[in-house]
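ok so dumb question maybe but i'm new to this and my supervisor (M.) told me to 'just get the structure for Proteasomal ATPase-associated factor 1' and walked off. so i did the thing. is this what she meant?? sequence i used:
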Amino acid sequence: MSARDGLTRPRIEIQPDWFDYVQNKQLPVDVYVNFKPGSIHLDLTRAQQDLHALLLIKTPNRNESTIYETSVSDHFETSHIEHDEISIKLKDSVIRHTFKGPKRMFKPFYDSCKENKTDTSPLINIPELKNLPSVSTSNIHPNCLDINQDGLGLVGLNDGTINIFNNDNGDIHHTLKGHAQDVYTARFFPSNHLILSGGGDFLVKIWSLENDGECRETLTGHTSKINDLAIIGNGEQVVSISDDGSARLWNLSNEPNKTVRTICQLDKGINNCSLFESTLACACADGYVRTYDINQNNIKATSELKIDGAVNCVCYKSDYMICGTEQGIINVYDVRQTNSVVHSWKELRSKITSLTQLDDDGGLLVTTGDGSTFYHSREMLQVTNIEVETDHSMLYDVVDYTGPKDDIVLNACVDKNNNIYTVAGDGYVRIYDKVQAKK
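this is what came out, is it supposed to look like this??
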């Protein structure tokens, strides 16, 4: 099955600033709600094909109450707003969306660290680095986000710096300086004391938080920007992927040359990667997902999956491999037999920018280019035919985490307490409570 066959999942939308009115107590207020049926060949009446409504949000009846009353016009059913979330269901159907507002949001950009060390290592073997444009300090924005289990997070910025911040309030602990261009990818090592980063200057860097954020290593060899990184085991080896079409394996215990080998060399760039055990899955700009065994000295792919359009991201776990494309298509594969797609559909959203499979329930967290972050349960990933029947045993239930209006959400992370973190093009890190499953 392919998304080209016309399978487009339905979507309920709510006015993006609905939560601002609730949070600021600017009530009562009417916000719009609409339904897009997609092209999944549902047995919908003509009246259900293009639905718009106004949702009235009212203040609580009692001063001490935190439950906001709601009402909506025909064709929709809604619940009260509690714990910053509201559920909206299409009447006489199995389609329900739950919308969740952020519990905190902040911009972790200012530099409050007075004694940050700057990496002064020479820039070696970086072709045409002198021609890279400079970054205006008045237009700083994030490119990536990661968090660790010790209460710290990081954002990689387009001015070449990495800000390490407190997950609770955004206070900056360190600012790491050393990349000459955008930091496109950065992540914590399992120890939580080291950071791996890659940038538009073609460099991979390793930083130590125990030594006031100094750069410990600079790995050279790529000839274009670094798009993603993977850490193997406890961090003895790492993988970097690049717009130069290569995936490289580095052994951090080797001296003086850290390069182990080139895993692959493609004609076009690799946008994203995911590692499970010894298998590296690569989301490729030429429209393929390719997998490689990192333990084999062979640059030939162990599998090649042709996808419609450029593949932006891939998520690889024990039983599923999932990829997202520039066209907003999501494909699900069974890792035991990856030569054919198990399920494929198109979201009524913009391009897919990141995929995160949650460890606690096997569900999927997705970010997109239009400001939306949403969650599909493990059961929903397996649904291939959504029927609109009032007696259907399972709801088509989607959770939408309200983000910026029409601004890209770059990626998402989940901490040990199931808090969800996102970072968007507007510069904000947003933190959400994970919505619990509803019956």
